[in-house]
Amino acid sequence: MSTPLPRHQATRYVQPLREGGSLPAVIDTDGGGLFVTKFRGAGQGAKVLVAEIIAHGIASALRLPVPELAIIDLPDRFGQSEPDSEIQDLLKASRGINVGLRYLDGSFNFDPVAAHDVVDTAFATTLVWLDAFITNPDRTARNPNLLVWQRKPWLIDHGAALYMHYDWASVNDARVATPFPLIRQHVLLLRTGDMEAASRAATDALSNDVLDAIVHSVPDALLMDPLTGDESLDAATAKARYVAYLRGRRAAAPVFVAAAIEAREALRASPMQPFMARR
């Protein structure tokens, strides 16, 4: 049985965060505080929000630090006083359910050199496993999608993960079990330790019940979104498809772990390249 996600109503548009292509924003809520919110009406659509929820649940199950996630409801008249027409259009297209992560006041972007000491081997190894599991391309030195807050790294922005759900027709057993070649670009790959031990611990943590609960926490409205959801299916069938994929991916862990180890050893054997920090 899944636990419903916290849910808050948006009360004030605080500021846009223009680093992201989907124009997320800091939103104040009725009693919930500030959340960095991604909008269903942005160009990538509802599947970005589905990926955020599922990736967040998996990271939490692996005891990786992620900000609190909540459903953010935009009421009908929200944002009508915004002077920016682009923002107004985005908010109008996003009435109803959206997804927010707790705003970590005072946090700063992770720099692989300056913030080197806040990451240990256990964290790096589990994080690399997670990103290979969920096929997350957005954890590079240029775009690490990690924040440092209270001297601890926090995972953010998993909307690009699970990209197989943009083309379910191509998802077969072979694709589910494929390695994740982009893992070679992972910002923390060289910091990893015993990947096989981390994989055993992760697969144990992600039991069938855990994966089922994570997927079933996704609101039906996101799966059935008329623009980019799976409106051709009912919600239960759509969720069963995600569960089957994640179970298959878990079974394929030896394949993508071996590929990650191979990529790490190839990097260690090659001349060191300077980190390119995000600008």
Outline:
With 279 residues, this protein is α+β, with helices and mostly antiparallel strands.
Key traits:
3-stranded antiparallel β-sheet, alpha+beta, 9 helices, globular, 5-stranded mixed β-barrel, 279 residues
Please give the oligomerization state of what you see: single chain
Helix share, percent:
25-40%
Mean pLDDT: 92
Our estimate of the beta-strand percent is 15-25%
Structure overview:
The chain is an alpha+beta fold. The chain has a domain at 119-142 and 166-269. The chain is 35% helix and 16% strand. The chain is built from nine helices and eight strands. The chain has helices spanning 46-61, 85-92, 121-133, 173-176, 195-205, 208-216, 220-223, 235-251, 253-269; strands at 7-16, 25-29, 33-38, 69-74, 96-102, 108-109, 146-149, 152-155. The strands form two sheets. Strands 1-2-3-5-4 form a five-stranded mixed β-barrel. Strand 1 and strand 2 form a beta hairpin. The radius of gyration is 19 Å and the shape is globular.
